[in-house]
Structure formats: structure tokens, C-alpha cells
Design goal:
Layout (H helix, E strand, L loop, with lengths): L1 E3 L5 H10 L8 E3 L3 H8 L6 E3 L2 H8 L3 E4 L6 H11 L2 E4 L7 H8 L9 E3 L7 H11 L6 E11 L13 H4 L3 H4 L2 H11 L5 E9 L10 E8 L4 E7 L1 E13 L2 E7 L8 E5 L18 H14 L7 H20 L3 E2 L8 H4 L4 H5 L1
Parallel strand pairs: 1-2, 1-4, 2-3, 4-5, 5-6, 7-10
Antiparallel strand pairs: 7-11, 8-9, 8-14, 9-10, 11-12, 12-13
Helix pairs in contact: 1-10, 3-4, 4-5, 9-11
Bound molecules: nicotinamide-adenine-dinucleotide.
């Protein structure tokens, strides 16, 4: 294994490797900030620091590389790693646009190497349990959902130069923060239905940034179910929440950055017999849990979860949310294709300039 980008989130990748230490060995860390690479390597068994990804790939020939750099670098670095023959486990957001995503994964080979993306909120066993209950009909049809990522970030957070700008972060809280909860909502319902149409508004109310700091969206699913989605970085009482009213029960997940089974509450409808609400095993959502199937897929030479079309689902939803907010029109799934200004740029720069 190797890591590129020894900043804040790299620790979670190291913890994920350590949780699977019988199968993985971190051999190298690249960061343009030499002191950071050195300090990070000092916390590992024997990883060697590198000043850039290129020299690391040539000297170490890793099997899999974690990309933990700012979003504007993901496309170029993912392609370099795939071209070297190694697999990629890249931080969210995968990149800054659907065009970049399609370009990036065109560097995958048949049978690998593959690039998968870190949507760790899917990884808890309680999420798999919900999907299982839904597939078995225990919950009935999903009817209306609420998906909320209402967080708080201060001016110091936005003093990091790559944050809060379209060119380097790719968007505001809809892209950088709410992506986890929105990915989880879409993943929870994916066996049953896909989103079909979104309407949205964005605003910049507090922060001195280029992007929005709050967004609100209305979503219709193919099944007819409806959802509301709110993402913010100005909410003093922070919460991550998904609530889904199904025919036979309301299911509500309330947490902040990760959950265990007890964060999920099932309320059966009147006259519905008890629903088996607890997963057989309680594995919390985390980078370590998200890494497990990636590792298994690597060993089996199979496409990992959160890659290809599965990794693209939430990115298309975010692009559509931004297009809907910018144009004031409802946007359908599949509508943003090459040639659409929002395919190349989440801000749809062409539309704004015009
Ligand atoms: N999954 C999650 O819950 C989660 C949480 C926080 C951040 N993230 C994501 O992780 C990524 C990194 O975020 P962060 O908060 O760790 O950022 P950070 O700014 O703390 O760290 C980024 C690191 O990349 C290094 N870097 C910059 N350019 C480089 C280059 N060309 N080559 C090698 N290294 C380079 C920087 O020197 C820095 O050490 C972002 O995409 C962010 O959205 C994910």
C-alpha cells in the first residue's frame, strides 16, 4: 500500500490498513510537504517518504494507493496510479465533475486495476441490514425520505486555500460534506428505486467562499417516492440524519460522522408486528469497514464497491442538484451528458458566463 497526501484524512487510511494488518503493508507516503510526509511516516512501521507520487510509483510499485489529496488533484493522480497498474482507493469527492469521473475511470483495465471511492457511511452493518429488510419486503415500499447534513464549519476551516472554491474543492457542502449522507440515502434505496428528478436552491449566507454554504433540494424517485435533502456548513447544532418513511415502518438514522446499530431507530406502523431491527453483527461505519470489501475485491480481481457506475451515482446527483439550483429548472437523472455545461463543471460556468 501507499498513500499520497499526508494531511488530515490520511490518518483514517492508516487506521484502515492497521485494522487489516495481516493483509496489508504500508510501504510509502508521498506529500509535496516534506515535513508532513516525514512526520506521517514516523507514525508507521516502516513507510518511506516521497516528495511526489511519480517517484513513489516507480520505486515502490505498490499494489494499491490511497489518494488523500485535495479534490482538484484526484483525476490526475488516479490516472497515474491506474496507469502504473495499481488499484486506487480515493477520497471523496471522487473529482470535480462528471467529465473528470468518466475520464478517470476510462484508465481502468478490464479485470482491473480499478478505482474506488471512499463513501464510508455505506460501510456499517446497519446499512446492509436496512437494505436486506427492504429487499425482503419487511418495510414495505419507501414513500418519503429526509436526508440532512447540517454541519458547522468556521472561518479557520475555510482558511485552507483549496476549500470553498469551485476549481479546487469542486463545490460547497453539497459536494464536500453532504455527499456521504446523499450517497447513503441513494445506496439504501438502490435495490428498490433510483432517483429520477431533482429541484434545488443554494445560497451563500455566512462564509466568505465562492461556493454555496447551504442547499435544499426536492427529489422524486422512479418509484414515486419523494425526498428532501439539506446540506449546510452553518448549523450550530450539527447532525447527520436520514429518515425514511416506508409503508410498514419509519426508519431514522441520527449520527454525526459515523454510526453503529443503536443510531438507527425503527418505528413500526400501527398493527405491524415487530420488525427484526438489529443486524446480526454490529460493525460501525468507518474507513476500516469501507476498506474491507475493497481489499477482498483486490484479492479476487473483481470490481470493488463504490467504483464505476456505483461510484458515479452520487456525483451525478450532486451535479444535477447544482444544475437545478443554477437554472431554476427540474433536472432528470441521465440529463447531464457531454455537451451540457454541468458535465464539465459543477458550477456550469458556461451558463453563468452567458
Ligand atoms: N471521507 C471523509 O470523511 C473525509 C473527511 C475529510 C476529508 N476528506 C477528503 O480527503 C481529501 C483530503 O482532505 P484533507 O482534509 O486530508 O486535506 P489536507 O489539506 O489536510 O491534506 C491534503 C494533503 O495533500 C498534500 N498535497 C497537496 N498537493 C499534493 C501533491 N501534488 N502531491 C502529494 N501531496 C499533495 C498536502 O500537502 C496535504 O498534506 C479531500 O478530498 C477531502 O474531501 C474525506
Amino acid at each position: 500500500m501507499a498513500i499520497v497526501g499526508a494531511g488530515a484524512i490520511a490518518d483514517s487510511h492508516l487506521a484502515a490498513y492497521q485494522a487489516h494488518c495481516d493483509d496489508v503493508d504500508l510501504v510509502a507516503v508521498a506529500d509535496v510537504d516534506e515535513a508532513r510526509a516525514l512526520a506521517f511516516c514516523a507514525t508507521t512501521d516502516h513507510a518511506k517518504p516521497y516528495p511526489d507520487l511519480e517517484s513513489l510509483l516507480v520505486e515502490q510499485e505498490p499494489d494499491l494507493v490511497s489518494i488523500c489529496t485535495p479534490p482538484g488533484l484526484h483525476v490526475e493522480q488516479t490516472k497515474k496510479v491506474l496507469d502504473s497498474g495499481a488499484w486506487v482507493w480515493c477520497e471523496k469527492p471522487p473529482c470535480r465533475s462528471l467529465a473528470e469521473y468518466d475520464d478517470m475511470i476510462s484508465a481502468e483495465g478490464d479485470g482491473g486495476p480499478y478505482a474506488s471511492f471512499v463513501y464510508q457511511q455505506r460501510s456499517g452493518s446497519a446499512a446492509a441490514h436496512f437494505r436486506d429488510l427492504l429487499a425482503r419486503g419487511e418495510l414495505g415500499r419507501p414513500l418519503v425520505a429526509h436526508c440532512q447534513t447540517t454541519w458547522y464549519r468556521d472561518a479557520a476551516y475555510y482558511s485552507v486555500p483549496w476549500r470553498g472554491r469551485w476549481a479546487t474543492e469542486g463545490g460547497g457542502p453539497a459536494m464536500g460534506h453532504g455527499i456521504h449522507q446523499m450517497d447513503l440515502l441513494l445506496h439504501l434505496l438502490a435495490g428498490e428505486t433510483e432517483w429520477a428528478e431533482v429541484q434545488a436552491m443554494t445560497a451563500r449566507l455566512v462564509h466568505d467562499v465562492e461556493t454555496e454554504d447551504v442547499s435544499a433540494a426536492l427529489v422524486r424517485f422512479e418509484s414515486g417516492a419523494l425526498a428532501t435533502v439539506v446540506n449546510s456548513v452553518l448549523s450550530p447544532d450539527e447532525v447527520s440524519r436520514i429518515r425514511i418513511d416506508c409503508e410498514r415502518a419509519t426508519v431514522e438514522l441520527t449520527h454525526l460522522y459515523g454510526y453503529v446499530a443503536e443510531n438507527w431507530r425503527y418505528t413500526p406502523a400501527p398493527r405491524v408486528a415487530e420488525i427484526p431491527t438489529t443486524p446480526a453483527e454490529d460493525v460501525g461505519s468507518s474507513h476500516a469497514a469501507a476498506f474491507k470489501p475493497v481489499l477482498a475485491a483486490h484479492r479476487a480481481g473483481k470490481r470493488p464497491p463504490c467504483s464505476g457506475r456505483d461510484g458515479r451515482r452520487v456525483l451525478e446527483f450532486v451535479a444535477s442538484l447544482y444544475k437545478a439550483a443554477s437554472t431554476g429548472q427540474s433536472v432528470s437523472r441521465g440529463e447531464i451528458r457531454p455537451g451540457d455545461p454541468f458535465y464539465r463543471d459543477m458550477a456550469g460556468a458556461g451558463v453563468k458566463a452567458g
